[in-house]
Amino acid sequence: TTTTTTTQDKPTTTTTLQLHLGPANEYCTTILSEADIIFAYTTVWPTLPEFNVDLGAMILGPEWSFMLSECCTNGVVVITTDRALDPKYGWELVSRLDVENPDLLGSTGFVQVLRK
């Protein structure tokens, strides 16, 4: 979906929203490398075995943390659920939000920015 907005205070801006389903690594040189914001429902994705006390989260494995850091541009925002991206690949946790999720007794959204 593409939306074009014009206001008196701002010049015309175009916003594009795309939803994709499929293996993320297949989108590395196209969608992921061009994205400004990525949302991934990661609640059941594989994690490292230890809980990260500093982040207060389970950390996604390198198949996600490393792959996204390699495919995405510096400054991209990635929002994940119930798991955070690994800071050793350049991911900085900037915000977290605990929300109700009756299926899981609650969920946490993690907002991370790539700083490489």
Oligomer: single chain
Strand content: 35-45%
Query: Which structural class should the secondary elements be placed in?
Result: mainly beta
Largest sheet: 4 strands, mixed
Runs in which pLDDT lies below 50 for 5 or more consecutive residues are: none
Query: What's the alpha carbon Rg, rounded to whole Å?
Result: 16 Å
Gap between N and C termini, in Å?
30 Å
Q: Helix content range of the residues, please?
A: 10-25%
Overall spatial form: globular
Write down the secondary-structure element order. EEHEEEHEEE
Order the strands across the largest sheet as they lie in space.
3-6-8-7
- Total beta strand runs: 8
**What number is the mean pLDDT?**
89
| Number of contiguous helices | 2
Short description:
This protein is mainly beta. Helix content is 15%, strand content 38%.
Structural descriptors:
mainly beta; 2 helices; four-stranded mixed β-sheet; 116 residues; 8 strands; two-stranded antiparallel sheet
Give a verbal description of the structure.
This protein is mainly beta and 116 residues long. It has helices at residues 28-34, 62-71; strands at residues 2-5, 13-16, 37-40, 47-52, 57-60, 77-81, 91-99, 107-114. It has two helices and eight strands; from the N terminus they run ββαβββαβββ. The longest helix has 10 residues, at 62-71. The strands form three sheets. A four-stranded mixed sheet has the order 3-6-8-7, with no helix packed on it. The protein is globular and about 50 Å long. It starts with a strand and ends with a strand.
